Amino acid sequence: MTVTVRFAPSPTGHIHIGNARTALFNWLFAKKHAGRFILRFDDTDTARSKQEYADGIQRDLHWLGVRPDVTVHQSARFDTYDAAVERLKELGLLYPCWETADELERRRKIRLSRRLPPVYGREALKLTDEQKRAFDDEGRKPHWRFLLPNFKADPFAPERTEVHWDDVVRGPQTVDLASMSDPVLVREDGTYLYTLPSVVDDIELGVTHVIRGDDHVTNTGAQIALFRALAAEPPAFGHHNLLTTVSGEGLSKRTGALSIHSLAQEGIEPMAVCSLAVLIGTSESVSAVRSMDDLAERFEPSATSKSASKFDPAELQTLNRALIHAMPFEEAKDRLAALGVAGDEAEPFWLAVRGNLDRLADAASWWRIVQEGPETKPVFAAEDAAFLDVAFDNLPPEPWDRMTWKIWTDRLKELTGRKGRALFMPLRIALTGREQGPELADLLPLLGREGTLARRP
């Protein structure tokens, strides 16, 4: 059996880091088991689903390093769902209901007032043919519910019916079907809710493991029952904890909060997002992981906490810096070339500046400083200006290497008596125009003697 997983977003907005968590859990699970990853667009809601969002989701997954083996669209599979509906009707497991939302709410309140579970009482099963015709004559359209197998002979006498599964993330789980309402599978307008297309697709695409957010735990019992009603063996299920904002609010595609697209535009590294999205809320410490292969080795679904995890964007910045500071030149080379950083000096430049970058794109400004000088001409107090005259008069002869900085500053200490910040800061500002930055011992060989003299105030 080939392990087969799926990520099933609705193309109704940009995916965010919470969605990425689900995608990555599935992708890494497939990698660990040499399995297949299916991207399935749940786009049966044709009014809200947009191709631009589907394209964006594929782009964002590719940016993260997730490469689907198969991509399918539910909007192209309505005939398959229609056939499943007819089969359930023939089995007597899908029945029409005409109640309005207001009527259902009134019944729910009545049941609560009687201290009964607020579940649907299957009143539609008691309707006579004449009553059904009357609804039809009024122009009322039915919605269709799946009859849960939570009774022996009388559907109006449900009894405790436990569904068990060993959750890939949470361990042994139990749901009582008697505590649930028969789920609506088809709306009044004939469109499908999530459950039926999802189950039918999982069957036909050979999905072996469904890994998703823990907001779906309570749905699992009914879905397992639906798999069995369609004569299929249910897949294994896993439910990971959800991410929230620092204030505890849920993430939403519609608001664009922490969207993968926005993080990419901000210059965040893909593996910073992947590392945080996967490791947060697990027993693993959150640290910058350099590759998907390394992350797959650390990934263990069962190590995930059962409570929601708060996502702090500041952690992304920390991870991003760690990845940039350790990034080998070969990994950065093409991206640096796109920024104009190329030639024989590109590698020593990168090794000199990477430890001071928050984002790779920040290298461009340091490249301009190395090549052209400070962005604005520094102005110095008379005392510092006099010191710099001495400094530039005493530049060491070439060739220059990393020891040149020490040779130069040791000489200046002897000549001027300056040391510490009073010695180093005027030199740094004269050479770079900034008070902070890469080690001048690394920058000086890149500037060369001629380039350094050109920066004399």
Automatic annotation (TrEMBL):
Sequence ranges assigned to domain Glutamyl/glutaminyl-tRNA synthetase class Ib catalytic in this UniProt record: 3-317
HAMAP family named among the record's database cross-references: Glu_tRNA_synth_type1
Residues of the Aminoacyl-tRNA synthetase class I anticodon-binding domain: 387-455
Gene Ontology annotations of biological process type: glutamyl-tRNA aminoacylation
Domain of life: Bacteria
Species whose genome carries this gene: Neoaquamicrobium microcysteis
Family classification: Belongs to the class-I aminoacyl-tRNA synthetase family. Glutamate--tRNA ligase type 1 subfamily.
A Pfam cross-reference name: tRNA-synt_1c
MF GO annotations: ATP binding; glutamate-tRNA ligase activity; tRNA binding
Record gene name: gltX
Name of the protein in question: Glutamate--tRNA ligase
Keyword ATP-binding set for record: yes
InterPro entries, per database record: aa-tRNA-synth_I_cd-bd, aa-tRNA-synth_I_codon-bd_sub2, aa-tRNA-synth_I_CS, aa_tRNA-synth_I_cd-bd_sf, Glu-tRNA-ligase_bac/mito, Glu/Gln-tRNA-synth, Glu/Gln-tRNA-synth_Ib_cat-dom, GluQ/Sye
Organism classification: Bacteria, Pseudomonadati, Pseudomonadota, Alphaproteobacteria, Hyphomicrobiales
Localization: Cytoplasm
